[in-house]
Design brief:
This protein has 541 residues and is mainly alpha-helical. It has helices at residues 63-66, 69-76, 82-91, 93-100, 113-120, 123-126, 129-140, 146-177, 181-193, 207-215, 223-231, 234-239, 253-262, 272-281, 335-345, 348-362, 369-381, 386-394, 397-402, 410-422, 431-439, 463-478, 501-510, 513-520, 525-533, and strands spanning 2-3, 17-22, 25-30, 49-50, 53-54, 285-287, 305-307, 310-312, 322-324, 327-329. The chain has 25 helices and ten strands. A three-stranded mixed beta sheet has the order 1-3-2, covered by helices on one side. The chain has a three-stranded antiparallel beta sheet with strand order 6-8-7. A two-stranded antiparallel ribbon has the order 4-5.
């Protein structure tokens, strides 16, 4: 049976052709991302924030957004599913947005108990980063005979891989099952913004802590908090080599990326001299993997700082006066970094750069200048209050017009498919999900360079990408993914039932005539599932 050209629906702009032959079905799928219309007017005035959270004026007020509740949920979550759709129907879109703006504890209340139990059983949940890192360091430094050294190296590598898998699995389970879906998206967005690569040195031992301590608590807080937390975390300091940055031996890697990728942007108006001065400010900022007391530093003793693995060693610090972005910073130790971060966090270039990246993630590849300027104004007016910036964006006409038209990156596609297929049913094995994300080119923590994964749809709509998505849709649709295989090897049937109430209440009404016709021609429930999960409508959010 030939699979029709589903992308004939007018909301799509065909750019790629993928010819797939799978289970006797020829799929001709022209898939691309439609560009959201450009708004002709700025977004509504920025909401105000208070010390206790949000004021009563901070709310979703744009009627064009409120009128599209399911599409709003698709955009604010990793994907709509039956249980979240019921919540949305019960409380309405405005209350749903306010609910999503709340920061939930890391344990994730509301997640299925089986998922919470899986997360609680992980080493990264039971041991703190210092303990994990120290144990690994002992393995690494083992110096017995040759055979013992090889065994120790093997155990070291296996433990690093185990910690990496646990970190990936925990993030995947939270993305699929947490009721605070906006928080989960923002955790991913900020991790990608402050990217570290799991394959460098022993960063795998730090990943879980980096995401949970440096990113998650501040994902819906203030941008300044994220700058501070990431700049004091050993995962970032190791990834960008600041452990090597010392007086008379400067290393500018981290200083450059803070300005270019984390705050002001490459066109933010800083100079090479500013990079050099920030590198001087960052001298002595590093970490210590040894479980020993503070070093003897003489006159610098009161300047020494040790918190967990983080260490500021004043003997390695340049105490000279610096001039950074036009500000004179007196040499006084670690306090210089706090002053520099204050300057960066309040800079107009940072407000614009961060706002544009948020708009690219939530609106389109090319957000309008009017929208970005409006969000940047909110940033500056609220000292980088992420909730307020998001609300400014959510209330814009441009956001409303973009709903349903933003092409999904691999994580959005995989997670939305699993949420739709299994709702709150707890998967037991995240291995297939980890493999799918790797095949699609977006493995969690797998971006080698500090710029993070691309936010542009063109990075993810190639014919090869679409072929792999169809194969994943078929695997999920047939219930043969191995998601319900326990550690003992026993596997529970995992066939998804996609023709449920959510399909008839929402999906059926949103599908094009071509997609509906194709679904009607399916020869089996498995084929029907595959065709729905591979449909053009499932590629957008």
């Amino acid at each position: 049976m030939p699979f029709p050209q589903l992308m004939s629906h007018p909301i799509y702009k065909p750019t790629q052709l993928a010819l797939l032959l799978c289970s006797g079905i020829l799929l001709t799928s022209l898939v691309a991302c439609s560009t959201a219309p450009t708004a002709n007017k700025p977004a509504p005035a920025a909401p105000t924030s208070t010390q206790n959270g949000y004021s009563s004026t901070s709310a979703l007020v744009n009627p064009s957004v409120i009128a599209q509740p399911e599409l709003l949920m698709q955009r604010l979550s990793w994907g709509i599913n039956p249980s979240s759709a019921q919540v949305l129907k019960a409380i309405g879109p405005a209350a749903y947005v306010q609910q999503q703006l709340q920061l939930a504890p890391m344990t994730g209340p509301g997640m299925p108990k089986a998922i919470q139990d899986q997360i609680a059983a992980m080493q990264i949940s039971q041991k703190d980063m210092v303990t994990i890192a120290m144990e690994l360091e002992q393995m690494r430094q083992a110096n017995d005979d040759a055979n013992a050294k090889e065994e120790s190296r093997k155990a070291y590598r296996e433990q690093l891989n185990r910690l990496d898998k646990e970190s990936q699995s925990r993030a995947i389970l939270r993305a699929i099952y947490s009721p605070q879906q906006l928080q989960e998206q923002m955790c991913w967005f900020w991790f990608n913004h402050f990217n570290v690569f799991q394959g460098k040195a022993n960063i795998r031992a730090m990943l879980g802590d980096y995401e949970d301590k440096a990113i998650r608590p501040h994902a819906l807080g203030h941008f300044r908090e994220l700058l501070d937390a990431t700049s004091h975390h050993p995962a970032m300091l190791r990834y960008l080599d600041n452990e090597q940055n010392a007086i008379n031996h400067p290393n500018e890697n981290y200083a450059r990326e803070i300005m270019e990728l984390h705050s002001m942007g490459v066109d933010g108006g800083y100079t090479q001299r500013d990079v050099q001065e920030l590198a001087r400010i960052l001298t002595g900022v590093g970490f210590n993997m040894k479980n020993d007391g503070p070093p003897k530093l003489g006159q610098f003793q009161d300047q020494y700082v040790r918190r967990g693995l983080f260490e500021f060693n004043p003997r390695r610090h340049d105490y000279g006066t610096k001039v950074f972005l036009g500000h004179t910073i007196k040499g006084r130790g670690l306090g210089e970094l706090n002053e520099a971060l204050d300057i960066l966090a309040t800079h107009p270039s940072t407000a614009h750069f961060v706002s544009k990246k948020l708009a690219m993630f939530f609106v389109s590849d090319t957000p309008s200048t009017a929208l970005v300027d409006s969000m940047a104004q909110t940033y500056l007016a609220t000292n980088g209050d992420i909730k307020a910036i998001l609300l400014t964006m959510f209330n814009s006409d441009e956001f409303a017009k973009s709903l349903g038209h933003q092409f999904k990156d691999p994580q959005h596609y995989v997670f939305s498919s699993l949420r739709l297929a299994y709702d709150d049913r707890a998967i037991l094995n995240t291995g297939p999900v980890i493999n799918w994300l790797s095949r699609l080119g977006q493995p969690r923590y797998g971006k080698l360079t500090p710029d993070g994964y691309s936010l542009s749809s063109s990075a993810w709509d190639s014919p090869g990408q679409m072929t792999t998505r169809f194969e994943i849709a078929k695997t999920i649709g047939n219930g043969s993914a191995g998601l319900f295989k326990s550690d003992s090897g026993n596997e529970v049937a995992g066939f998804p039932k996609l023709s449920n109430a959510l399909y008839f209440d929402y999906w059926q009404k949103s599908l094009s005539a071509n997609t509906l016709k194709t679904l009607d021609q399916a020869n089996s429930p498995q084929e029907w599932n595959t065709l729905l999960l591979a449909s053009p409508e499932m590629m957008n959010r």
